[in-house]
Amino acid sequence: GAGVSQSPRYKVAKRGQDVALRCDPISGHVSLFWYQQALGQGPEFLTYFQNEAQLDKSGLPSDRFFAERPEGSVSTLKIQRTQQEDSAVYLCASSLERNRPSKPQHFGDGTRLSIL
Amino acid sequence: QKEVEQDPGPLSVPEGAIVSLNCTYSNSAFQYFMWYRQYSRKGPELLMYTYSSGNKEDGRFTAQVDKSSKYISLFIRDSQPSDSATYLCAMRPFSGGYNKLIFGAGTRLAVHP
User: Fold this and answer.
1) What is the mean pLDDT of each run of 10 residues along chain A (116 residues)?
2) Cβ–Cβ below 8 Å for A107 and B90
3) Which of A32, A92, A109, A113 to mutate to test the interface with B (most CBs of B within 10 A)?
């Protein structure tokens, strides 16, 4: 498909386990964003990549959260030693250019993470 | 206090009604304003994008920005059951190097036949 693809769509983990969430952006898109969306809330920024460079990780809640995009395409968000408060939908978005507000961010359908 | 405030609703209207959705914000540096629609278990999709103050119309949708009041609105005319979704406002400052968005909490809208 031509859209942003995220996997898995649903993930259930026990508290303390590590999880890895994958994002396949639209081919050729330079910018890639991760957002966290808690139930009943809007998405909140976690981190931003321009190609393979992670330029902003100011939104990551703790050092248990780690993101990478080693070849400038697929990105992985990893959460270590998961806690119940990590339960949320994790959204990935990509856009063609770095700094064009008129160029929309295309969102994936997210990974719904539940920590038991 | 959050940078962007949005009434979560829910808002229930009959088919054909005019819907008004609103957000207020506190950061005067915001220059770009967007409305996203999010269906259940789906990612947000961009509906409208506006730069600075003014109005923008696209079909049944009209976006308004009043920077002096730090207030933005989305109007939906002739609402349809297919408009039932959560509507998120989003904004960003002019500078910043990249398109990092600040979202409101979203308003749930239900349009009933």
Assistant:
1) 91 98 95 95 95 93 97 96 97 83 84 97
2) no
3) A109
pLDDT single digits (tens) B44-84? 999 998 888 889 999 999 999 999 999 999 999 999 999 99
Q: Is A98–B106 a contact, with Cβ atoms under 8 angstroms apart?
A: no
Amino acid at B8: P
Ramachandran angles phi, psi of B66, nearest 5° = -120, 95
> What is the per-residue burial (b if ≥16 Cβ within 10 Å, else e) of A77-110?
bebeebeeebbbbbbbbbbeeeeebebbbbbbbb
pLDDT confidence of B96, banded at 50, 70, 90? Answer: low
Distance CA B113, CA B111 (A): 7
Higher pLDDT residue, A7 or B28? A7
Q: Do residues B55 and B39 make contact, with C-beta atoms less than 8 angstroms apart? A: no
Q: In 3-state terms, what secondary structure has residue A86?
A: helix
Tell me the pairing of strands B107-112 and B11-14.
Answer: parallel
Contacts of B65 in chain A (CB under 8 A): none
CB-nearest partner of A48 from B88, B98, B105: B98
